[in-house]
Input
Amino acid sequence: MLPESLPPPATPHDADLRRQRLLLAERALHWRRTRRLTAILLGLWLLTGFCTVYFARELAHITVFGWPLSFYMAAQGASLVCLAIIGFYAWRMRQLDAAYANALDSTQNQAPEGAP
Output
């Protein structure tokens, strides 16, 4: 995930600095992924919650199980989509957090260059 193009450390202090840089890079990558996931899911929530109400007249011509789409989304659809968003968020964040924890463990367990 991270570029390994950093020069090998010359002293133990350099190894600590390199490890700190790797930790900061992992944290930045984790939060970038978390923000992207949150933005996408909030956009989906906005689309199903607000836009279906705002465009209710236009969506009334589309039927779902015999009911106009705007009525269906207001009655049940938005709630079901919200539950699906929450479930997907919990599942995906568990994966992202596990990947972040693994990256932190591998960074913490790296032996300094030249160590026995």
About this structure: Residues 16-108 form one domain.
